[in-house]
Amino acid sequence: MGMKCTHFAQHSVVKSPLLLGGGVGFLCAGLLCLVTVSWTTNNVIMDFYDPFLPRGMKYEVGLAVYVGYASSFLSLTGGLLLCWSRISSRERSQGPLHMQTSQPSSSPITFNNIYPPAPLYNPPEALKDNHAASLCSLSSSGYRVNNYV
Question: Where would you find the membrane-spanning parts of this chain (predicted)?
Fold first, then answer.
């Protein structure tokens, strides 16, 4: 929800903290997954080399452990990318330190005078109420669910 490509909270100051919160959430999930997979791997290896444990009670490291390591790596990578994109977007909006000057910057070029605004979309009236009646609809009493949804 915090990415710029979504329409949630568009032009709001909430997007940046949402992006950081998502990144921190992915980092925490990756760390917790890494801890539990490492703990399980340690227990399996310690039990495997225990000479007092019967041979039928010993386990080996399997595919699930490797999938756990891969998922923790992907979660950590996703969290780092989200946090990094938030930091880089903040630097882009503020500009690098060596580029900041006390001179007023010129206003950006606007294309409002060149291109007229797009017309609003109105769905064609021919398609309205042109649906086949289904057995589970309330169309027999005159009410249609499609009129309200």
Answer: 18-41, 61-84
